[in-house]
Amino acid sequence: MKIGIVGSGISGLGAAYYLKTRYGHDVEIFEKNDYVGGHTNTIEVEEEGRIIPVDTGFIVFNERTYPELISLFAELDVESQESDMSFSVWNLRNNLQWSGIGMGGLFAQKRNALNPRYLSMLMEAKRFFDEGARDIQGLDPDLSIGQYLQDRGYSKYFCDNFLVPMASAVWSTPMQDMLVFPAGSLLRFFKNHGMLDIERTVVWRTLVGGSWSYVRALRERAGLIIHSNSAVTEVHRTENGATVATASQTREFDAVILACHSDQVGKLYRNMPDEHRSILSNFKYQPNQAILHSDEKAMPPKRKAWASWNFKVTSDERTCTVYWMNKLQNLHRQGARHNYMVSINEFQELNESKVHQVINYEHPLFDVQAVNSQKDLLRINEEGPVHYCGAYFRYGFHEDGLWSGLKAAAAVDESLQRKEAAAL
After folding, report:
1. Mind listing the pLDDT tens digit for each residue in 170-198?
2. Start-to-end Cα distance in the chain
3. In angstroms, rounded to a whole number, what is the distance separating the alpha carbons of residues 293 and 302?
4. Distance of alpha carbon 137 from its chain centroid, rounded?
5. CA atoms of 356 and 340, how far apart (whole Å)
């Protein structure tokens, strides 16, 4: 059977790979960008005659909570290495700087050893780790993390300088929007990823040579037909399947998978069932600008406060997460002699000569309504002939995108088998 897929991020690539290699279908992917991979976007930076591959979207994974990705990487035989997932906060409102790298990082500013509010924050962090692990079961699904923290008496200092910055960095979400995130989902995610443990037990990894190495391997292994620079203008459900239209052509398929953001689905799928449209409308997105650069002034002033993930916030609550790519990707092993950072929504003025690339991404925003709607996504995906997948099906990360792509591929195959059986 012929399957059309809109979008070449991990969800679309994963669905296409398994539809082709596991189920034996013919697959074509339509991608609006001039590159394939979505948030898997490795940029080659030239440095004194060397090429340094720097990731700007998908960077890290682990063996505990990324089982589908681990399985795919093993099948594709791509090489990985250990990464570092340390975290820091630089609050420009009160000039607080700290990182989680040992006592030297926690007390990067020596005066904090005598700061009662800071010392109390560290004690509250320990309490949150303990209470959060206990509270995961039985929480009201409509309870937000902001209300959870308020009900349990956590201080504003702890929220503003520890927990909310950490969660905001993880989901690339403004601090205020993070407060409406469902408490149960956040605690489960933190627990599963070892973020409720003082001694972090999860080993994080990154792909050698950049995350695009798996995209290249996947394309070569499956021999996929991919139309880049081919923005889809509309998708229609038909009696025999579905059509995909671009500016230059309209193609007919036995089934179509919309592996794009849910807000884009509503614009493309012209005769979408009303129930589907209602469910998908509950998922919103946050535009985020990523800047790949080498300007060290974007990092905390105290060098001991530097970490892999560096969250900073201004007095007017503008926020930015700066990824120190040398530490995350072990770029020294690639020969890098300069520091490379990726700033998400940078508010400081950077030296233009040190800016290598600017990329615009979008990340899903999760509130109680969105999380409560996730249970309906797999159900409506059984119907066809137009199916959906994306990281918004779960937590919004690479594993979630791949997981949803595998579910969509299975749903497509089952739907087509039912159709063939009915025609006999």
Report:
1. 999 999 999 999 999 999 999 989 888 76
2. 16
3. 19
4. 25
5. 9
Stated as kind and residue range, the H or E segment containing 339 is none
Alpha helices per DSSP H over 317-363:
325-329
Joined tokens for residue 9: 């991020």
Phi, psi of 345 (to 5 degrees): 60, 55
- How far is it, in rounded angstroms, from Cα 66 to Cα 69? 5
**How far, CA to CA in Å, does 236 sit from each of 62, 66, 283?**
39, 34, 22
Residues in the chain: 424
Structure tokens at 421: 């059986």
Taking a C-beta distance cutoff of 8 angstroms, is the pair 55, 329 a contact?
yes
Strand ordering across the sheet containing 242-246: 232-237, 242-246, 250-253
Q: Give per-residue pLDDT as tens, 207-253.
A: 999 999 999 999 999 999 999 999 999 999 999 999 999 999 999 99
* φ, ψ dihedrals at 2, nearest 5°: -100, 125
d(CA 334, CA 149): 43
- In degrees and rounded to multiples of 5, residue 83 shows phi and psi of -115, 180
